[in-house]
Amino acid sequence: MGRRRRDWGVLDAQLSSKNMLRRLAIAAAAALFSLILFEGALRLFPPPISDRLFQEDGRFGWFHIPGRQGWYRSSEVSVFITINSHGLRDSEHGYDKPEGTCRVLLLGDSFVEGMQVPLAQTVGRQLEGLLNGPGRTSFEVINGGVAGFGSDRELLFYQAEGRAYHPDLVALFFFRNDPFDNTSSPYASIGPRKLRTLAASPEENPGLAAMARSWLWDRFITVRLGALAWVRIGGLVHPGPPSTGEPDSVYRVPVPADVEAAWNLTLARLQELQDAVEEDGAQLILVDVPDVQSLGPIRSEPGYSMDQVSLRLGEIADGLGIAYLDLLPAFSAQEELTPATLYWPKDEHWTSAGHRLAAQIVSEQLALANRSAEDAGAVARPRTACR
Predict the structure, then answer these.
(1) What residues have CB less than 8 Å from 222, skipping those under 6 apart?
(2) What pLDDT, on a 0 to 100 scale, did the predictor assign at position 267?
(3) Whose CA is closest to 64, among 129, 5, 148?
């Protein structure tokens, strides 16, 4: 009887084990089916999560994926993005400049890149349309803007890629966070004027884990949504310093030591970019992109001056002999265009109207540059004659 009880006990254990495996298999199948349904629902009603349009790049830290197409999404916009074969958010441009063409290369960050609007509405495309016309020189405007780039990465991009297009004019669009982008960059260093690369280049052959992550990210919205949720949970567990509601420290008066160091580094980078552009026989122009907070009457918070960036950038341009164009006065003068018309309220980048206004201002200055010195007066006149 004892042996029979043991046999029955073994049989019961085996049956329990099989039932457990069956339950686990059913649970796994149900979870997989739920994920498939959830993925399908997300594809029908996509959340504001962008597709992967960037990758690591040993030259600049990151760059657009050449030939990639995908959606840029936020709570305010949904734009289909196409990256050309050279990694620019633009149509195709060959390195060789067509004969009789005057090329304008735009450098900058996300304002020039313009993923918040269709390509045809970006400042580069609208500027090209305004410059070209009957009896005018054939202008070609190339969009070299990349989100997150500061002056150091813009310099590196020009040295590695931008000069290969043989531009006649290089317009660098400067935003108030560029000085701190420079100091936080692994390519930045206070001291020698030459950039010093501190970050290692990504491996030529990424590991299987990295390849798997990229493959899953590209193909499943649930993976991107899970990654975003993980980041937000991390922000709740380890919250950053609370927002004070004050303007950026770059507007502080007197200038803090860390801001002064950032401007000194920026000066060195702009000087190096100017040297490289002039070495190529082209001309550099600085275009100051206004912060949406600086539109309208200058804010009067004690210890801040909202025109600090434009004043400092103007001083740098004068000292280096670079043509300078401040967009702030023209943006502020547009009484019929409120900040909400020119900038997305949450995203705080230009709408199509903001891109159009910037293009109009730049094109007018380039038109002045082609007039005689008597007509142009004291306006800074970048050369636009083609080589």
Answers:
(1) 35, 38, 39, 42
(2) 94
(3) 148
Domains of the chain: 91-376 (3.40.50.1110)
pTM of the model: 0.84
Least confident of 9-23, 153-167, 337-351: 9-23
Task: Quote the distance between the C-alpha of residue 207 and its chain's center.
Answer: 27
The backbone torsions φ and ψ at residue 101, rounded to the nearest 5 degrees and listed phi first, read: -105, 135
Nearest alpha carbon to residue 112 among 103, 121, 124: 124
Reported as a single tens digit per residue, the pLDDT across 289-333 is 999 888 765 566 778 888 889 999 999 999 999 999 999 888 888
Q: Is the bond leading into 242 cis (omega within 30 degrees of zero)? A: no
Name residue 304's beta-bridge partners.
Answer: 252
Question: Going by C-beta distance under 8 Å and a sequence separation of 6 or more, which residues neighbour residue 57?
Answer: 63, 202
Measured CA to CA, the distance from residue 82 to residue 66 in angstroms comes to 9
